[in-house]
Write a structure and sequence with these properties.
The chain is an alpha+beta fold and 643 residues long. It folds into 5 domains: 91 residues, GIY-YIG endonuclease (3-Layer(aba) Sandwich); 143 residues, no CATH class; 126 residues, Nucleotidyltransferase, domain 5; 201 residues, Nucleotidyltransferase, domain 5 (2-Layer Sandwich); 52 residues, 5' to 3' exonuclease, C-terminal subdomain (DNA polymerase, domain 1, Orthogonal Bundle). The protein has 21 helices and 20 strands. Strands 13, 14, 15, 16, 17, 18, 19 and 20 form an 8-stranded mixed beta sheet that branches. Helix 11 links the parallel strand 11 and strand 12. Helix 4 packs across helix 11 and helix 15 packs parallel to helix 16. The longest helix has 30 residues. The radius of gyration is 32 Å and the shape is elongated.
């Protein structure tokens, strides 16, 4: 083994604490470890052959050895953590933050901050809250911050020189910092600070500030502002009361670690308990490395040590950490964590009672995640999403993808469909369908207030755009495929803005460059030009993007292309199905359906009594009254008299 060639160097190592690094022939670091006594720890590798497949692979590849001396084991632990994060050695157990559940990011690095959904915590100047379980809770919380404090949701560059605010100001979801006369930077700064207190859970401090502000506004006779602040106070007090009812104060503040280790990798679930209640759930999983096999975890102890390094690299530890196993260097880890927190941190392995029950619950959650994370189907989905992330230069995996298609016959009964794919799986419960009303053709310079209502895919009734017979010549606006795409994208994401999400990581349009351009016009009209969209053309199966002049050709068997085709075909199927339903409804519609007071039962009664629509038209008032009563009879006569 190559490790045998390092015997002489290992024998000369000092018996002092430090960090050791194994490298391969190419000079890449493949493993980083810490040691209380470097010579003893590294010498153990000479006899480690056969202990595990991971150790065997490491010993075969290790060609060079470097060491760094430190004054204490705690310093070695901190240095090991830093080097692992920096060099990402493939034989270390590398854990990453869970991306299934989102965070809320307050963009404090902007002049006029926003609250947006983020998939992971970055080491930047922004403030993060979360993760939120379930994911919809993040969007509801974001929507609540808009309603309570009025932070902007657009991505415009704010200069204060805009002539008039957008619809968000009119519906009282934004304080309009874009218009200097309506909101000064100081006023917006107070709203940002209130939002931060709310996201941090410091409700008591926030309520004190809001009550003072409400009293001040009332004394100055700014009654509308005082009423808005009063409503915010009531909402926050209600949320606080609900949280208190779910508390178990005797549990205090602690982080609980559940671990599942298997041949494909490892999953760690962390429940963060604050004030006696579980407020957050964090999942860590072994990194997937396309250039190397999945590192097999040797033991729960190694996984827990790696999880501690990853978990508290950017977070403050709780006073107590509940672990499933004892650590060999528990005292060193406690000293390191205590230094990070600025107070004493204890590592505890509960054996019985409620604390052990919560530990077992975390372990069961980790086992469930392991089954869903490391099955073959999920691996294929991950490969497809990773390819799409690279092709479209996305900051993270496109876990949520929206797909759109238009269906029409020469402008007649033009409809559109939306389908949703999350983590490679279609979510039928979030499909939506739309009737095109001709609102998209004049979108340039048009505000979001002109959008129509979105129809739920589960609705039993179609939404007719006009009453009476259809015109023989279709509206030319409804024949414009591009205008239809503009309209449906505008309507969909206007509603998403109003509800605070969910925003897609990628939008797939059934069509080429023209349909893609129309979709971006709608997104930019809503201030959502930062969303990424792509068009997938039929036959050639080429992918069109805004950032590339030429289309992108993915391999015919590429999992990424197969996923895009599945989303496109599902959107097409859903649109065609709705279009056929709309045509059937149009063909079966009777002229009596548009008469006020005539429903299906009265329509059947009239046609049965008079034989046909012409017979109803010739009937006298007395004959009609005998069938449907005087009021409806007058409505029928008035309708035919107008014709």
């Amino acid at each position: 083994m190559p490790i045998e060639k390092l015997k002489g160097q290992i024998a000369r190592l000092p018996e002092q604490p430090g960090v050791y690094l194994f490298s391969n022939d190419a000079g890449a670091t493949i493993y980083v470890g810490k040691a209380r006594a470097l010579r003893d720890r590294v010498r153990s590798y000479l006899h480690a052959a056969g202990t595990s497949p991971r150790h065997d692979a490491l010993l075969e590849e290790a060609a060079r050895l470097e060491v760094v001396l430190t004054d204490s084991v705690v310093e070695a632990l901190a240095l090991e953590n830093h080097l692992i994060k920096q060099r990402m050695p493939k034989y270390n157990i590398l854990l990453r933050d869970d991306k299934n559940y989102p965070y809320l990011k307050l963009t404090t690095d902007e002049s006029f901050p926003r609250v947006v959904v983020a998939r992971r915590v970055e080491r930047d100047a922004n403030f993060y809250a979360g993760p939120f379980l379930p994911a919809s809770l993040a969007r509801r919380t974001m929507s609540l911050t808009h309603r309570l404090f009025g932070l902007r949701s657009c991505n415009e560059v704010i200069t204060g020189a805009r002539g008039r605010p957008c619809l968000e100001y009119d519906i009282k979801r934004c304080v309009a910092p874009c218009v200097a006369d309506l909101c000064s930077p100081e006023q917006y700064g107070r709203a940002v600070e209130d939002t931060r207190l709310f996201l941090e859970g410091r409700s008591d401090e926030l309520l004190v500030v809001l009550r003072e502000r409400m009293t001040e506004a009332a004394e100055a006779e700014r009654f509308e502002q005082a009423a808005h602040t009063r409503d915010a106070i009531r909402t926050i007090e209600t949320l606080k009361l609900r949280q208190q009812k779910m508390s178990t104060p005797e549990l205090g503040d602690r982080d609980v670690f559940g671990v599942k280790v298997g041949p494909s990798g490892a999953i760690v679930h962390v429940f963060q308990v604050r004030g006696g209640r579980v407020i957050e759930r964090i999942e860590l999983t072994t990194e997937r490395d396309a250039a190397a096999p999945m590192p097999e975890a040797e033991s729960e102890r190694e996984v827990v040590e790696a999880a501690l390094l990853e978990m508290y690299d950017a977070r403050s530890p709780a006073p107590e950490l509940h672990l499933p196993v004892e650590l060999e260097d528990a005292e060193d880890f406690e000293a390191w964590l205590s230094g990070l927190a600025g107070r004493r941190v204890h590592l505890v392995v509960p054996k019985r009672g409620e604390k052990r029950g919560l530990l077992d619950l975390a372990a069961r959650n980790a086992a469930l995640s392991y089954q869903s994370c490391f099955n073959p189907t999920t691996a294929s989905h991950y490969e497809a999403l990773e390819t799409l992330r690279v092709v479209f230069n996305l900051p993270s995996l496109p876990r949520r993808i929206d797909g759109f298609d238009i269906s029409t016959i020469q402008g007649s009964e033009t409809v559109a469909s939306l389908v949703v794919c999350e983590d490679g799986r279609m979510k039928r419960g979030e499909y939506r369908k739309f009737r095109i009303k001709g609102q998209g053709s004049g979108i340039r310079g048009q505000g979001p207030g002109t959008s129509g209502k979105e129809s739920d895919s589960r609705s039993r009734h179609l939404e007719p755009s006009t009453y009476g017979p259809r015109p023989l010549i279709p509206d030319p606006r409804l024949q414009d495929d591009f205008a239809a795409m503009r309209e449906v994208v505008l309507r969909r994401y206007q509603r998403v803005l109003e509800h605070g999400g969910p925003f897609p990581d990628l939008i797939v349009i059934d069509g080429g460059k023209g349909q893609l351009t129309a979709a971006y016009e709608a997104l930019e009209a809503l201030g959502l030009g930062n969303l990424v969209a792509a068009g997938l053309a039929k036959k050639e199966e080429l992918v069109f993007t805004r950032d590339h002049a030429d289309p992108i050709a993915l391999g015919p068997q590429s999992p990424a292309l197969l996923l895009l085709q599945r989303i496109r075909d599902e959107a097409h199927r859903f649109a065609v199905t709705y279009h056929r339903t709309a045509r059937r409804t149009r063909d079966l519609r009777s002229e009596l359906d548009v008469v006020p007071g005539v429903g299906p039962r009265r329509r059947r009664a009239l046609l049965h009594a008079f034989g046909s629509l012409a017979g109803v038209r010739r009937a006298t008032r007395e004959e009609l009254v005998a069938i449907v009563g005087p009021k409806t009879a007058d409505a029928v006569l008035t309708h035919f008299a107008r014709q």
